[in-house]
Amino acid sequence: MNTTSTARKLRIAILGCGFMGTALLSGILKNITHSQHEVHFSVTASSYASLRRLDKKFAGQRDQVVVITGDNVEAAKPSEVVILGFQPQQLAEILSNSALLEAIRGKLVISLLAGISSRQITQTIYPNAELSEENRVARVIPSIGAQIRESMTLVAETPLSSSDSDLVAWLFQQVGRTQHVPEELINTVTAVSAACHALTVVAVDAIVDGSVAEGVPRQMALDVAAQCLRSSSTLLQGHMSIESLKESMSVARGITINALLQLDRGHVRPGISDAVTHAVHYAQEFTKAE
């Protein structure tokens, strides 16, 4: 599916709409009014508190969020697309419901479950089946930026028809960029993404603290640091290489090069690399189980 295709109505169920499901839905709803496609959502949660949270969150968007329920079968039955957004450890329990399996078989199933392979999803829904386009199972890992349409969504390369692949791409492009990844690398790249978010937040926090210590108001320091991070990341997306960006900022006897040299005295860069490789090795423990 692409934005130039014939307009269509689409019903999507998000089962177990937790933190990431809520972020994803929030981001889609911010952009969906600009789409020619008419999309409606049914979302579920397992607890009364979560249902209340969802009801309050999407109270002003009843035109798109038509059902908020604790019944997965009720949400899945009328939907063309079913997104699995619950906790990975809940997979066996939730999909042990024969009525739910009947409701989702034959439909496009998009899994957001970290550490759970498309084969595991397929074999749970279609026991003893081989991976094929007929099973219609996609594996997708959005990032936290989905809620502000700045996600880097990882899409595992799994057997899907071209129409299903286009639909997955279109849906997640509503909340940012997408990156197709061989499924055997999905846990590794997810770890890189998670580490990048964590490490950059820590770096900004340290920059702000250092600025405050030198007399800069905290909010001012945060605004400057956040915008500098945003501009640098934008420049690195097809405009400049890391080397050329560093060279353009590091003039002779300048502030930037002296800051970098001071950073290196603390062995920070090796520490960052070590943190990333540790995250990757941790994530690869999930891969072994797949």
Automatic annotation (TrEMBL):
A molecular-function term among this protein's GO annotations: pyrroline-5-carboxylate reductase activity
Keywords: Membrane, NADP, Oxidoreductase, Transmembrane, Transmembrane helix
Superkingdom, taxonomy of origin: Eukaryota
Domain spans labelled Pyrroline-5-carboxylate reductase dimerisation: 183-285
A family per Pfam: P5CR_dimer
Binding site for NADPH: N72
InterPro entries, per database record: 6-PGluconate_DH-like_C_sf, NAD(P)-bd_dom_sf, P5C_Rdtase_cat_N, P5CR_dimer, Pyrroline-COOH_reductase
Transmembrane segments: 12-29
GO biological process: L-proline biosynthetic process
Domain Pyrroline-5-carboxylate reductase catalytic N-terminal: 11-115
Binding site for NADP(+): L15, G16, C17, G18, F19, M20, S46
Family label: Belongs to the pyrroline-5-carboxylate reductase family.
Listed name of the protein: Pyrroline-5-carboxylate reductase
Native species: Exophiala viscosa
Lineage: Eukaryota, Fungi, Dikarya, Ascomycota, Pezizomycotina
